[in-house]
């Protein structure tokens, strides 16, 4: 089981970060939805599934039944973290469900509802921020795929850019 | 390898890849039974888990009342498992549950040679341990599953009075003797006000229940038959309904009433679905296994009433179930599993065409039932049964929402619909 890095924990606890969960349908086609309730719960990621009969609800069941991986992305501004893992548990009663439901009702009013809380067991956690990924790639393959008119490559990049 | 053990589960998993392991285990645990090891028994004594032994369908003596009991088992995927625990039934080689590192762990057998999976139990509802204003323990009024509240409106089945009870039934017994527990030990009547207060109490716990289910022993008093029972249900449903603005997700498992009686129930209460169980489809076997139902209603009328109920409650809001496996009971049952399956699929096809949701449960030979010594068909029989029923219902656009994984826990065929 992977440990959550401090930077990820900060990002996921930021109420303004966008949290997305990706599953796959029975043909393997990806399905991505925003899950604003996603948070860290012990060694797992937890989020609420509001609608009983939703596509993502079906695909989450399919993932826990047939051992299909799921992915999570949390992003804000230039920061982005990705978690790949397996669905670990679907909670349909108990204290965690109650807690998520009460938060949902605090946010959306007393008629808000929640079908289940899903827990994801992370297998891989990666900083997907653009600058981090670019530095990583360029360290391994310095010239791969670079356009030759980039400032870091051209001798007179500034002058050419100014003329353009 | 033996029937329902882990090797067998793995074999079935390979043969039927559309049936997940959780659902196979649910069938297998009902089939082979479960033993709680000492650490697990200690863990369920915890206030968060201990349901206590009080059940709305059965009487327990003083000794049994001292024991801790868990609520329904929960698999990791949320599937409810109504498993048979060894303290209530006798099993040769049950699965075992231990408690290690703060988790309940399911093992293949007493040797603990193979870990099957982590499991859990339904958390004890907050209303357990509380009393109604008349002093009744609320858990004696209603039992809670993961998302269903089960109310028993009348604790005696009058089919037993003349020895015409359904042959697999153990309701309102002490689970040892084949007789109904006396009125003195287990009062028949349940007050509507106690039920109202108990429902009101569970609604205080956020997200604890999404369906109210009611049943009772059969009471054929009145003219036409069952009129007194229908009026009793109306009285109780009206009391429950004081908690809600209008209709509320609910199911009534009761005999197949006339259309006039169903209309009365629908129009005067907030009831949404009914479930007149056929129990066994074959005409000859129905008469043998359910003699009370045959005498006081009759199979043909039972079926017609069930179909008529769709006109009142709507397509998909009338259910019926079979006790899967009793159709093979000796000496009159089907001789082969293929014949038995064909009969069940014929029934499902018939009911589905008429908008009735047809589901199955796994027959468990209870000690206090007439069928206590009957053998069950193979576990694979149940796998074939649940796959077939799901396919037929899907073809007719029906889903067993009120009997799904989180509400009942008895119907593995309904669990399969979670990915549909």
Describe this structure in words.
The complex is a heterodimer of chains A (164) and B (420). Chain A has 164 residues and is α+β, with helices and mostly antiparallel strands. Chain A has 2 domains: 6-128, Electron Transport, Fmn-binding Protein, Chain A (Pnp Oxidase, Chain A); 129-164, no CATH class. Chain A is 32% helix and 33% strand. Chain A is built from 5 helices and 7 strands. In chain A, strands 2-1-5-6-7-4-3 form a 7-stranded antiparallel β-sheet. The longest helix of chain A is centred in the middle third of the chain and has 14 residues, at 95-108. Chain B is an alpha/beta fold and 420 residues long. Chain B contains 13 helices and 13 strands. Chain B has a 6-stranded mixed β-sheet. In chain B, helix 11 (337-353) packs parallel to helix 12 (379-395).
Identify the notable features of this structure and list them briefly:
heterodimer, A: 164 residues, Pnp Oxidase, Chain A, 2 domains, 7-stranded antiparallel β-sheet, 7 strands, 32% helix, B: alpha/beta, 13 helices, 14% strand, globular
Summary, kept brief:
The complex is a heterodimer of chains A (164) and B (420). Chain A has 164 residues and is α+β, with helices and mostly antiparallel strands. Chain A has five helices and seven strands.
Major interchain interface with per-chain residue totals = A-B, 23 and 20 residues
| Assembly context of the chains | heterodimer
User: Given this structure, which CATH class of the largest domain in chain A is correct?
Assistant: Mainly Beta
Q: Could you say what the CATH topology of the largest domain in chain A is called?
A: Pnp Oxidase, Chain A
Total strands of chain A? 7
């Amino acid at each position: 089981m992977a440990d959550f890095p401090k930077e990820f924990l900060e990002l996921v606890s930021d109420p303004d970060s966008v949290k997305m969960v990706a599953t796959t349908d029975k043909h393997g086609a990806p399905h991505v939805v925003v899950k604003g309730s996603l948070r860290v719960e012990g060694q797992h990621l937890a989020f609420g599934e509001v609608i009983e009969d939703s596509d993502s609800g079906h695909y989450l069941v399919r993932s826990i039944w047939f051992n299909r991986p799921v992915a999570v992305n949390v992003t804000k501004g230039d920061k982005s973290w990705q978690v790949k893992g397996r669905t670990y548990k679907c909670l349909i009663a108990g204290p965690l469900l109650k807690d998520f439901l009460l938060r949902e009702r605090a946010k959306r009013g007393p008629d808000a509802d929640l079908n289940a809380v899903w827990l994801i067991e992370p297998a891989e956690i990666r900083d997907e921020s653009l600058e981090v990924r670019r530095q990583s790639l360029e360290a391994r393959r310095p010239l791969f795929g670079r356009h030759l008119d980039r400032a870091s490559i051209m001798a007179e990049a500034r002058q050419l850019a100014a003329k353009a | 390898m033996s029937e329902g053990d882990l090797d067998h589960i793995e074999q079935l998993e390979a043969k039927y890849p559309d049936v997940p392991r959780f659902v196979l285990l649910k069938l297998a645990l009902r089939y082979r039974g479960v033993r709680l090891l000492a650490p697990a028994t200690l863990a369920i004594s915890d206030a968060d888990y201990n349901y206590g032994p009080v059940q709305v369908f059965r009487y327990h003596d003083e000794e049994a009342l001292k024991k801790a009991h868990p609520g329904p088992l929960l698999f990791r995927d949320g599937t409810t498992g109504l498993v048979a625990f060894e303290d209530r039934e006798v099993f040769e080689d049950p699965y075992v549950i231990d408690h290690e590192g703060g988790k309940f762990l399911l093992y293949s057998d007493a040797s603990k040679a193979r870990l099957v999976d982590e499991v859990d139990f339904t958390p004890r509802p907050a209303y357990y341990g509380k009393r109604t204003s008349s002093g009744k323990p609320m858990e004696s009024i209603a039992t809670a599953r993961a998302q269903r509240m089960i109310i028993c409106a009348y604790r005696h089945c009058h089919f037993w009075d003349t020895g015409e009870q359904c042959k697999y039934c153990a309701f309102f017994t002490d689970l040892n003797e084949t007789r109904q527990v006396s009125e003195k030990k287990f009062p028949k009547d349940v007050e509507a006000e106690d039920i109202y207060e108990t429902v009101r109490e569970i609604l205080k716990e956020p997200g604890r229940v999404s369906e109210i289910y009611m049943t009772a022993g059969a009471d054929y008093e009145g003219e036409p038959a069952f009129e007194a029972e229908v009026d009793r249900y109306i009285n109780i449903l009206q009391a429950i309904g004081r908690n809600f603005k209008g209709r509320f997700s609910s199911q009534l498992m009761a005999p197949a009433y006339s259309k006039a009686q169903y209309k009365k129930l629908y129009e005067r209460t907030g009831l949404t679905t009914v479930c007149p169980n056929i129990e066994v489809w074959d005409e000859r076997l129905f008469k043998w296994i359910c003699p009370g139902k045959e005498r006081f209603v009759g199979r043909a009328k039972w079926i017609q009433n069930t179909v008529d109920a769709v006109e009142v409650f709507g397509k998909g809001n009338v259910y019926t179930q079979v006790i899967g496996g009793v159709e093979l009971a000796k000496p009159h049952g089907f001789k082969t599993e293929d014949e038995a399956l064909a009969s069940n699929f014929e029934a499902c096809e018939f009911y589905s065409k008429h908008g009735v949701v047809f589901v199955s449960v796994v027959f468990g030979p209870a000690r206090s039932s007439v069928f206590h010594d009957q053998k069950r068909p193979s576990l694979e029989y149940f796998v074939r049964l649940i796959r077939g029923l799901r396919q037929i219902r899907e073809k007719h656009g029906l889903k067993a929402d009120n009997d799904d994984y989180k509400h009942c826990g008895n119907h593995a065929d309904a669990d399969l619909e979670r990915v549909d």
